[in-house]
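Re: that chain you flagged

S.,

Sorry for the slow reply, it's been a week of failed gels. I finally had a moment to sit down with the sequence you sent. For the record, here it is as I used it:
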Amino acid sequence: MSRADRPDAATHPETATTPTPTDLGTHAWVTRTGGRLTAAERRSLLRPLARTHAANAAGRLSMLLRVNSGRRAMTTGKHPLPDSVLTRAAEDVARRRLSPALLGHSYRTYAYGVALGERENLDVDREVLFAAALLHDVGLPTPVPQVDFTLASARVARDVAEQVGLSTAATDTLRTAITLHHSPGVTLAHGPVAYLLSAGAGLDVVGVRSWQLPPDLLAAVVAAHPRAGFKREFSAAFRTEAARVPGGRAQFLRRYGAFDLAIKTAPFRG
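Prediction finished late last night. Pasting the structure tokens below so you have them in one place:
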């Protein structure tokens, strides 16, 4: 049985102490709601969003002062891309559906997610993580009115999973990681694939946790997968998403998270 056929699991001390998450952002939640937040759900996201902004500000300051923990980290990030029927199928779809800017973001999301997982000694199914990273934004270029783009991405992921015969448990892990990835406050309690997908994407988009990785690793990932005007393209796509799904998470992040400014000030060019 391959790792991609097994339920998502991790051996990490945080698992036992992290609170059980609500279903906000999961595949079941997005299917049920279309991605539209209730007032209570919006309030529940404010605290993790504020924590993220505070941590980002402190971490970015440590980078400017050259005292950030990433300068001493032993993480190399030098791992070959996983090669399996699942990863090849996901990569083929991503290459056909994504622009160069979004495709590069997808590869960088995987690379940063793996590096952060290595830093925390997490056991993660890299095949499923790679598929999730390559497919998490495939619904963004062709948004559907009133429906969160991650649901479209998850549907594409389901089709890929069915094509390659992925197990039900691994398919559920893949789809929920994708729908969760831009919710504030994704933790290890959501599973290591969802946790590292969200962490990798957040690092590439707004620089969250960039201070935890070596500068040479960050530069090498960008050199391997150039940004190609990613900030400009992603900001425009997210504005479209926010307008098409009033009350959704994209609108929430733009309204309460100063998302455009956060993207613009991420510690990367382009």
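What I noticed first: Residues 1-20 have pLDDT under 50 and may be disordered.

Talk soon,
D.
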